[in-house]
Fold this sequence. Notes:
single chain, two-stranded antiparallel ribbon, 50% helix, 14% strand, globular, binds zinc ion
Amino acid sequence: MVLILLGPPGVGKGTQAVRLAEELRAVHVSTGDLLRAARRDGTELGRRAQKYMDAGELVPDHLILDLVRDHLAGVPNGVPVLFDGFPRTTAQAEGLDQVLEQSGRRVDLVVLFEAPDETIVKRLGGRRSCPQCGAVYNVHFSPPTVEGRCDRCGSPLQQRPDDVPATITRRLEVYREQTSPLVSFYEDAGVAFERIRADRGVDEVYGDFKKSVEVAR
Ligand SMILES: [Zn+2]
């Protein structure tokens, strides 16, 4: 089974993906992880991707698709695969269809996680992380004991430049421009499609998510 998770940044789809992947013993594919692994392992693809990242440019689709193809080659066909935050564009979705076809797979289900913009802005805007130990906090939902200080190591917490309100709003706009055509792409292709409201508790969201996956299996 191949499952694609769509949703804006900060909607919590990564958390849901990790949980489902554990439960189904599925392979969880996030392109960020693939890129980091390729760089760390110093593969040819990793070195080529690094050049774009060093120049502050987006890694081109064909390189990302090559990474996905290589990764899938090592996954037995019976093992479910979850794509988290990929594809982002219709061009990537078309490329992914080809890569899947080459390995005898196809997309079985697309799940779109949705939340109002205010919720996303609050979630992302409240995020603080520790540059020393990597601990992540949220000033609204999981604040540190002492304001602005890491519970684990006492270092001053930082906000990622990506997580300031103006940037979040822009990220949401980009997401919407790219994702609306993607939704039509999969609906037109007749792929099973589920929308899940993600502005609820993690367990509640997961319950609905799992149900829709079980129906599609
Ligand atoms: Zn820390």
